C-alpha cells in the first residue's frame, strides 16, 4: 500500500519547477525548488532556486563592488561554474525560458552593466553549479515520487520570493494535498 504519493504525474518541461518531496534523503535537494531550463531526450538541467551559497558575487568575480548580490548553489554538478537567470530584456544573448525569464547572456555586457550601475541586482540570480539529469534519469526519479512538478516558473517567484519560504510557497500555490505537504516537519519523528 502506498501511503505517500507526492508526485502529481505532470511531466517536466522547459520552465517547469521541480519541488522535492518533503522527505527526500538527498542533502543536495532537501526542501528545494529547481527551475528546469532544458528538458529533452538527452536529459534535463536547471538550477536550485532556494539554496544560498556562503559567498557573494563580489567574492567570486574580481572588480565587482557594491552590487550586493548573493550566490546560490544551483546544484551538485560542476560547482566551479557560474550561471545566471535574469528578467532583464536589455542583456543580449540570453535564452528565454518562460515569458520575461532568461538564462545566461553576454557576460562581458553584464559585467559592464554591473560596473556602470545600469542594472538592478534584484533582477538577477547567480548560481555556482547546476542540477543535471542524464537521459531517463529524471523520469526515474519522478516514478519513485522524489519530485512534484509545477507547470511554470514566473519571474516574481524566481526573483521576489524569499528563498527560506520558497519551497512552502510553491507547494501552497499548487493547492489541495500539496498545501498540506508544505507543513510537514523536516523530521517527522519530532512531530
Structural class by helix and strand composition: alpha+beta
Give the helices and strands as they follow along the chain: EEEEHEEEEHEHEHHH
According to DSSP, the number of beta strands is: 10
What's the architecture in CATH terms? 3-Layer(aba) Sandwich
Q: What is the CA-CA span between the terminal residues?
A: 23 Å
Biggest pleated-sheet summary: 10 strands, mixed
Q: Which range does the strand content fall in?
A: 25-35%
List the uncertain runs.
1-5
Overall mean confidence score, pLDDT: 89
- General shape: globular
Descriptive notes:
With 191 residues, the protein is α+β, with helices and mostly antiparallel strands. The chain has one domain: VC0467-like, CATH 3.40.1740. It has six helices and ten strands, in the order ββββαββββαβαβααα. Strands 1, 2, 3, 4, 5, 6, 7, 8, 9 and 10 form a ten-stranded mixed β-sheet that branches. β2 (33-40) and β3 form a beta hairpin. The two termini are 23 Å apart.
Structure at a glance:
With 191 residues, the protein is an alpha+beta fold. Helix content is 21%, strand content 31%. The chain has one domain (17-182): VC0467-like (3-Layer(aba) Sandwich).
List keywords for this structure.
191 residues; alpha+beta; VC0467-like; 10-stranded mixed sheet; 6 helices; 10 strands; 21% helix
Write the layout of secondary structure elements.
Layout: E1 17-20, E2 33-40, E3 43-48, E4 52-56, H1 57-60, E5 70-73, E6 77-86, E7 95-98, E8 101-103, H2 107-115, E9 124-134, H3 137-143, E10 147-150, H4 155-160, H5 166-174, H6 177-181
Amino acid at each position: 500500500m502506498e501511503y505517500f504519493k507526492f508526485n502529481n504525474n505532470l511531466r517536466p518541461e522547459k520552465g517547469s519547477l521541480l519541488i522535492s518531496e518533503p522527505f527526500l534523503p538527498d542533502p543536495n535537494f532537501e526542501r528545494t525548488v529547481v527551475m528546469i531550463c532544458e528538458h529533452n531526450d538527452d536529459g534535463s538541467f536547471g538550477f536550485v532556486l532556494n539554496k544560498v551559497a556562503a559567498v557573494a558575487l563580489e567574492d567570486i568575480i574580481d572588480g565587482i563592488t557594491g552590487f550586493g548580490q548573493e550566490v546560490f548553489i544551483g546544484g551538485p554538478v560542476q560547482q566551479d561554474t557560474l550561471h545566471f537567470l535574469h528578467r532583464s530584456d536589455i542583456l543580449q544573448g540570453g535564452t528565454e525560458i518562460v515569458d520575461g525569464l532568461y538564462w545566461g547572456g553576454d557576460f562581458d555586457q553584464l559585467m559592464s552593466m554591473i560596473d556602470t550601475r545600469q542594472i538592478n541586482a534584484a533582477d538577477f540570480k547567480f548560481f555556482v553549479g547546476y542540477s543535471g539529469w542524464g537521459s531517463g534519469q529524471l523520469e526515474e526519479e519522478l516514478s519513485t515520487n522524489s519530485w512534484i512538478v509545477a507547470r511554470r516558473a514566473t519571474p516574481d517567484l524566481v526573483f521576489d520570493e524569499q528563498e527560506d519560504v520558497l519551497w512552502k510557497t510553491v507547494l501552497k500555490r499548487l493547492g489541495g494535498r500539496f498545501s498540506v505537504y508544505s507543513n510537514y516537519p523536516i523530521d517527522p519523528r519530532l512531530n
